[in-house]
Write a structure and sequence with these properties.
- This protein has helices at about 1-25, 30, 35-55, 70-85, 90-100, 105, 110-130, 135-150, 155-165, 170-180, 180-190, 200-205, 220-225, 235-265, 270-285, 285-300, 320-325, 330-345, 350-380, 385-410, 420-445, 445-455.
- The chain is mostly helical and about 450 residues long.
- The protein folds into three domains: about 1-25; about 35-240, no CATH class; about 245-455, no CATH class.
């Protein structure tokens, strides 16, 4: 009796120790992914209402009648969420990767898919090899430059592409996926303690919405990994649905802005009010970008990627620095990580203020070049116009003046008094007025056309 009692006690004690040990080493993300029937149906009901809105209002349906479009992509993504939600945590990301990669067969040509997968796996093999980081980065850079060279529009390379059975549409998709994120991936790979797995690589590059939205937010690889199931999936998914709703509102407003601007263009510019209205409507075309970005990141939230916001109330910017921080947060973070910090930390010991100014200037020079680089991939043309040059030069110079002012006048406690609020409102009006003027320059077909637009009262001969 005593022996059996001792055996039972030791068994229970061992079981308790085992369970405690498992809990101590358990992945907290497993708990955050725990399903709930009631909350699941609440999320699915909201997604169903969103699909109805997309269908009724023809959101982002600009492709041909025979092409699968935004609505089809959302059906695939929302359907994948229904299955993904109930899977064990260890299978969730693998399932999302399979869905994203399988979806290429729906939205891309077969030859594009084959070439895209071949390029992706080649880059992964380079990144996962045992070569030194410099050699891996050099090989990846050489291959990417070769891809850029072969995508140039010339008769010889057009013939070569035909011989290799690579359709011309491949290059825009290739650029939309790899042109910026490959830079981020290798930058983070340099400081990574372990090499990212194949699943992490595929989850970062082969993202379902990217096949339709080639103009894609520059998602940070390290941020994507750190935010994966960092909070309860229901909170993350609800945040994602909220952002999808906000993005949908942006896209619906964009449709209105587009048509109103088109009507104003037909009527002509005959007054100062028409000039201001056209400037505002031209700037508000950015609603399509912010709308798409909100929907893209919102979709990723459904699958556990608790990524930060892409745009934040940019119409309420109270300074040019504040506008730069709000208008495209992912691009700002990309430039800070790749350009600003390396320049600043290299020079700050000699002259902190000079390092800030030079790093800021370099950010805008690189941004100017990379926007043309982006145009090359998405449109097949490397364009550098006077409008681009003037826009980024003026904006960069004004931001540098703003940096100088903030350095000389450190930020104080926020003034909530009525005079303080009026000053803030005035600064918002001044900031947005400057943005509207230079944005109209950036959007003009030529500098001469922009001057003619501003001098509407001057007779034309």
């Amino acid at each position: 009796m005593e022996l059996s009692t001792a055996i039972a006690a030791s068994t229970v004690q061992g079981t308790v120790k085992t369970l405690v040990g498992q809990d101590a080493h358990a992945d907290p993300r497993v708990q955050r992914a725990r399903p709930s029937v009631n909350r699941f149906f609440a999320l699915v009901a909201q997604l169903g209402l969103l699909l109805a809105v997309f269908r009724v209002y023809h959101v982002e349906q600009f492709r041909g009648p025979d092409d699968l479009d935004f609505f089809a992509m959302c059906c695939v993504a929302f359907g994948a969420f229904v299955v993904h939600y109930w899977l064990p945590f260890r299978l969730k990301e693998k399932f999302w990767v399979i869905v994203s990669m399988a979806s290429t067969a729906l939205f891309l040509q077969r030859r594009v898919v084959i070439a895209l997968f071949a390029a992706g796996f080649l880059f992964y093999l380079i990144a996962a090899s045992r070569l030194s980081f410099r050699k891996r980065a050099a090989i990846a850079t050489a291959l990417f430059l070769t891809a850029m060279f072969s995508s140039a529009k010339s008769e010889w390379f057009a013939h070569l592409r035909h011989g290799l059975s690579i359709p011309g549409s491949f290059w825009a998709v290739f650029g939309g996926i790899f042109m910026f994120r490959l830079i981020v991936y290798f930058y983070d790979l340099q400081s990574a303690k372990t090499k990212p797995s194949l699943v992490e690589f595929l989850a970062y590059f082969f993202i379902l919405p990217n096949y339709l939205f080639l103009f894609f937010p520059v998602i940070d690889f390290k941020t994507m990994r750190l935010t994966y199931y960092r909070r309860d999936i229901h909170e993350s998914a609800q945040q994602g649905i909220f952002w999808i709703c906000r993005g949908t509102v942006h896209l619906l407003l964009y449709m209105i802005v587009f048509h109103v601007r088109d009507m104003l263009s037909l009527d002509g510019i005959h007054s100062f009010g028409a000039v201001v209205t056209m400037m505002f409507l031209t700037f508000m075309l950015y609603l399509r970008v912010s709308g798409q970005f909100h929907i893209i990141v919102g979709l990723l939230h459904l699958f556990g990627y608790d990524l930060p916001e892409t745009n934040h109330k940019y119409l309420l910017s109270h300074s040019l620095n504040d506008f730069w921080r709000r208008i495209n947060i992912y691009w700002k973070d990309f430039m800070v990580k790749i350009v600003y910090f390396p320049v600043y930390f290299r020079l700050r010991k000699k002259n902190d203020f000079g390092a800030r100014m030079l790093a800021t200037a370099m950010v805008f020079v690189v941004t100017w070049v990379l926007h043309s680089y982006q145009t090359f991939w998405l449109q097949g043309r490397f364009i550098m116009t006077w409008q681009d040059t003037l826009f980024w030069s003026i904006l960069g110079s004004l931001v540098m003046v703003n940096v100088w002012w903030e350095f000389r006048h450190p930020k104080r406690r926020k003034d909530t008094s009525w005079p303080g609020r009026l000053r803030t409102a005035a600064s918002i009006v001044v900031t947005m007025s400057l943005i509207l003027v230079i944005w109209s320059l950036w959007s003009a077909p030529s500098v001469r056309a922009w001057i003619d637009f501003l001098t509407w009262w001057h007779p034309r001969f």
